[in-house]
Amino acid sequence: MATIAKSGIWVLVVVVGLIVSPSESLTCSSQKFTNKSFDSCSDLPKLGAYLHWTYNASNSTLSMAFLAKPPQADGWVAWAINPTSTKMAGSQALLAYKSNGAIPTVHQYNITSYNFTAAGTKLTYDVSDLSSEESGGTITIFAKWKLPEKTEKINQVWQVGPVMQGLPGIHATKGDNILSFEALQLAGSGGSNSPTASPAPGPGSSSVPVSPAPSNGSTPSSTSRTTVGFNMGLLFSFVSVASLMGL
User: Fold this and answer.
1) Quick one: average pLDDT of 169-183?
2) CB 178 within 8 A of CB 231
3) Rounded (5°) CA angle 205-210-213
4) What pLDDT is recorded for position 26?
5) Is 223:84 a contact under the CB 8 Å cutoff?
6) Sheet architecture: strand order including 153-161
7) pLDDT in tens, 224-246
8) pTM score
9) How far is the CA of 243 from the CAs of 80, 163, 236, in angstroms?
10) Cβ proximity of 95 and 77 under 8 Å
């Protein structure tokens, strides 16, 4: 009887271990898309957001789906890549909200100045296959990014906020809204998802490069560290309602 009891305990331990396996406990693993699939997904640590992605190292393309719920029914959500910093200044952002009715529209923003309009601005990356949808109050942004060759790690930032008078308004500037950034390992040896602002390594370096931003069609071999310390929350909060889509 003692042997049977011990065996039963070990079986229970194994079963419980399988049930709470980290890969199975991810909420994103249960999320499905119509006619789309991705190799990897992540429950982002802030704002109840999720990222699904497939990275093709052979042509440096990143296909992704970002999911988040705005703080109000007609709010906005945003996901961005920052090629030089862990924060928002310098980011290449995709922001979606219901600007024309029931279907969310994706706008692109190159966060290099405060001169933004509802029409958006051109990104330094080529982005294709842009679309968005809403289900149950959650907005999903789909896109394919063309990254520089040999990109292995990127800085991602994400955000949610309200829509005021038909245009995105200022989001909260405390709590999770100022902590929504994290590095994303796309290829290579893996490692930490801790944010990194390290410039791309020079010849002979073995450190993991952050994705550099292309310039005039060329791919630079390194990036400089930005001295701007704004995070996404501070950037949107300092931009006036009239100049940044009501932000």
Assistant:
1) 89
2) yes
3) 120
4) 73
5) yes
6) 105-110, 92-97, 76-82, 153-161, 181-185
7) 332 223 334 434 433 332 333 33
8) 0.69
9) 20, 14, 11
10) yes
